[in-house]
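Ticket #4471: structure export looks truncated?
Reporter: QA, pipeline team
Priority: medium

Steps to reproduce: submit the single chain below to the structure queue and open the exported record.
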Amino acid sequence: MKLQKITMYCAFIAFLLSGCATFSRDGGMEDVNKTTAQHIKQEVVWQKSADAQKQAADRVNALLSACIDADDAVQIALLNNKGLQATLYDLGISEADVVQAGRLPNPKFSMFYARNNGDYKIEQALTFNIFSLVTMPKIVAIERQNFERTKKNVALDVLKLAYETRIAYFNAVAANQHFLYGEQVKESAEASAELAQRMVKAGNWSKLEQAHEQSYYAQAVQEYQIAQQQKNSKIEILSRLLAVSPDVIQLQDRLPDLPKNLAELQTVEKTAFEQRLDLQMARSDTDTLAKQLGLTKTTRLINVLEIGPARVLEGRRGDAYKKGVDVSFELPLFDWGSAKVARAEATYMQAVNHTAQVALNAQSEIREAHNQYLSNFTMAKHYRDEIVPLSKKISDENLLRYNGMLISPFTLFADARAQVASVNAYIAKLNEFWLAETALNMALIGSLGGK
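Actual output as written to the record:
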């Protein structure tokens, strides 16, 4: 009777423990939003219902009804990208693991039945794995920590999508600007080639001079076609991230101007080590492995201990059952668990060294990204403040000389093309700066090399 009471008591404890782990109201999405809100201002919605999907679609359509900037593009991607929605379901999978870890295995019922000339042997047992009562708290703690890691992983995926979208947006705007300036160069070269043809017919120019102008026009047409292909390609990349047709994307006419203030390296490094998600996940992995190491040491000798009431009948069918208790457990005759413990210890030390390496890599990545950020700012500023104004000044002076009939129109065409080329170069440098600024912001969040 005492053993039966112990069994019933264990079953009661199991029932209480099984009710401890339940599903949360938001599935962990609130924590993901808190993490992403530290880095971006756009909203992330886990669209688990038809109403949520409709609201997201309405908001996307509203944003697409006008020209979008980089922030708008990020918001559309976070609402509309189906790959991200698939990633958000990692939260549901991980939380289900937490809930499952808080539930004991079902009791087992076993029965043996034999009959011979009216004599019976019947054995019946109902057993519970009471050893799970020992391991359950640690298993639940491990799964909860895995759930926390999943939240950070999902947040990192959100922020990576935001990063990729900003990169794609700046590239698309820059490619469109290059295309428009390429069109101007082509038109200028076409006008120059037509004028050269007329002058040759009038006997004022040689065939060699005409060939030079026509060659430049042919090259301008080729570069225009390349710029058109690049524009289409960059917009397609953006459209995939936004999950919309490129035909509905309305880009701004030009890239944003250079900022007035730059981020300082010391501030950047301090922020990164407080908020960088891959560092947080590496530390979390190490803590989880430390708990698993404790669990391994706890279970190194006995993995299963089952106990429960049993009854046995031996004799005639109407005879009384003998009541008792069925106990079963694993005997450590061949495997004393030393290999499992050694493996857990080696895995833990591996994680410790991995975390140290992640921290060192983070420092280097931040320094490298900040150097690129400063360098690209300096080059873009030099083009904006020195090269482009000088090119325009030369073009303006030559226009005055042309009006005074001191230079030919071909010189004027050449200067116009040179000015467009300097502006194109500035656009390229400005785009490189915004890409570098985006990469620096990503370096404060985590490495793009993997999770």
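Status: closed, not a bug. The export was complete when the record was re-opened. Leaving a note from the reviewer for reference: The radius of gyration is 36 Å.
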